[in-house]
Amino acid sequence: QVQLVESGGGSVQAGGSLRLSCEASGNRTTMGWFRQAPGKEREWVSHIYRLTGVPAYADSVRGRFTISQDSAKNTVALQMNSLKPEDSAMYYCAAQYRAGTWPPRRDDFTYWGQGIQVTVSS
Q1: Using CB atoms within 10 A of its CB, is residue 65 exposed (0-12), middle (13-18) or buried (19+)?
Q2: Does the pLDDT of residue 1 top 90, yes or no?
């Protein structure tokens, strides 16, 4: 079992930055982030492979977002820079990734956090 607790998020103007963190308790596993805007499906944003530390990013955030992990603390962070209004969504931490389709889908991760709101105003 893995429990996930997100922190960070909030409201910022376009061009600004925010940092999300996710702390996991339980088994150590590959972790990542998804987001879901009102009326849209949950979409994959990024994840980082636990053993190699290699990150992966959706095209929409590559170059602006950076994911990192602290293995000692079993946490993953998402640094979001140059934020755009279209980045506004509920962001969810996810854990235990099973490689399948690309880009990853919701069903490819087993455990989920409660979600945290990110709002970017123009």
Answers
A1: buried
A2: no
DSSP state, residue 62 = B
Mode of pairing for the β-strands spanning 109-112 and 43-48: unpaired
Residue 47: left (phi > 0), alpha (psi -120 to 50), or beta? beta
Confidence tier at 55 by pLDDT (50, 70, 90): very high
105: part of which helix (H) or strand (E)?
none
Quickly count: other Cβ atoms within 10 Å of residue 13's Cβ.
11
| Whole-angstrom distance, CA of residue 79 vs CA of residue 87 | 13
Taking alpha carbons only, the member of 121, 109, 99 closest to residue 33 is: 109
> 106: which 2 tokens?
């919701």
* Sign of the alpha-carbon dihedral angle for 34, 100, 103, 52: positive
The CA distances from residue 6 to 39, 53, 80, 103, 114, in Å, are: 22, 20, 15, 23, 7
Amino acid at the residue 45: V
Percentage of the residues of the chain whose pLDDT score is greater than 70: 100
